[in-house]
Amino acid sequence: MRKKVLGICFGHQVLCRALGGKVGKAYTGWDIGLRKVRIVKDFSPCAFLDSLDEIPPALSIIECHQDEVWEVPVGAEVIAFSDKTRVEMFIIGDHILGIQGHPEYTKDILNNLIDRLLTNDSIEKGFAEDVKSKLQLAEPDRKCWQRMCKMFLNGR
């Protein structure tokens, strides 16, 4: 029996690397804020993916990462991407799913992380202020992400 494995952010990267893919620093630097992720609709069928017709073609998710997947493992399919990150989601069969963003994060969580990154000089003040102001203008699609994760973990 194959257990379901869902990797979020660093977990997405660890899954990829452990299974033979490549991970490294994002070529474009930090990805922090709300990102529009586009779902790929022409991938191999499996039970979880068949249910994705209910999911909009693009979803907003909170991102906070400096590393990213460069190359997925053999047998993996990229099922979502964004303007900044080429591999936002990948799947292997019906039992492994990686998501680069944070479906579980609220805007408050991200604002606190931004403050900590600013305090330890990981990001610049202007960048932090820009991200925070943009974050006020939109909401992540948390309910859709939650539904998608549950569909995957429950096998439907």
Automatic annotation (TrEMBL):
One Pfam family from the record: GATase
Residues covered by the Glutamine amidotransferase domain: 4-107
Annotated metabolic or biological route of this protein: Secondary metabolite biosynthesis
First and last residue of the signal peptide: none
A GO term from the CC aspect: cytosol
Top-level taxon: Eukaryota
UniProt record similarity statement: Belongs to the peptidase C26 family.
Protein name: Glutamine amidotransferase domain-containing protein
